[in-house]
Design a protein that fits this description.
Elements: E1 5-10, H1 15-24, E2 29-34, H2 38-51, E3 56-60, H3 63-69, E4 72-75, H4 82-89, E5 97-100, H5 120-127, E6 132-135, E7 149-150, E8 153-154, E9 156-161, H6 164-176, E10 180-185, H7 190-207
Parallel strand pairs: 1-2, 1-4, 2-3, 4-5, 5-6, 9-10
Antiparallel strand pairs: 6-9, 7-8
The chain binds NADP nicotinamide-adenine-dinucleotide phosphate (NAP).
NADP nicotinamide-adenine-dinucleotide phosphate (NAP) is lined by residues 10-11, 13-17, 35-37, 40, 76-79, 81, 84-85, 101-103, 138, 141-142.
Amino acid sequence: MKTMQTIAIIGASGNMGAAISKSLAKGNYRLLLCANELNKVQAVAEEIKSSHPAATVEALDCSVEASWEADIIIAAVPFAAEREVAAKIKEVANQKIVISIANPLNDTYNGLVTAPDTSAAEELQKLLPNAKVIKAFNTTFAADFATPVIDGKQADAFIAGNDAEALQTVSEVVSTAGFSPIVAGDLAVSGTLERMQLLLIQLNMKYDYNWLAGWKILHQ
Ligand SMILES: NC(=O)c1ccc[n+]([C@@H]2O[C@H](COP(=O)([O-])OP(=O)(O)OC[C@H]3O[C@@H](n4cnc5c(N)ncnc54)[C@H](OP(=O)(O)O)[C@@H]3O)[C@@H](O)[C@H]2O)c1
């Protein structure tokens, strides 16, 4: 059996952080949940313990300590908070996998704040030059985690990054969460993935599409 990996989820009290944490509780992971307010992540940890009594989960109020202990760090925070988070974890994230889930939306959610030639993930990589930044979970809505099989089809979850081993590790994390992992390319593909989710968000906001929606490549 593989050794248990430790995953720090920064922003585990948020919509995505809590959804990811709950979905990974069924895997062979030690989960360290952290956010600014300890009581909020404690509530998520308690919920996980009651639904998955065998899960290894702890709530921490310090993202540096959680990241120091972690093999994989998930930055489940708004794009605007990534600079602050990166500054805190920079020293302890060296050579570790850091998952960027952010969609860098503007205030009205009808565009991205990043320049056309970059992405939230690439900006995070610049802030954490010695970490292995991987884009994942940005094309899945928080609501999808409870129902990753939509209309009988397992939603795809796209992954991008520059390190083959890290992509494999994150593919396993994505599978554990219940999605079908698709490696879409190197980290520069992140801009495409972030724009894909902007499209889905726009469909919902403008045309009342459906928040329980995801991507699926159909094939034989
Ligand atoms: N919601 C979705 O369906 C969805 C889908 C794909 C990707 N995303 C991406 O996921 C990320 C989180 O979205 P969300 O909807 O989960 O947002 P959210 O519900 O507002 O949660 C944000 C989380 O980040 C924490 N946080 C905020 N600023 C922080 C800081 N400076 N340092 C540490 N923690 C901080 C918050 O903690 P406090 O409450 O204690 O401040 C909270 O736990 C965003 O980048 C978003 O683009 C969201």
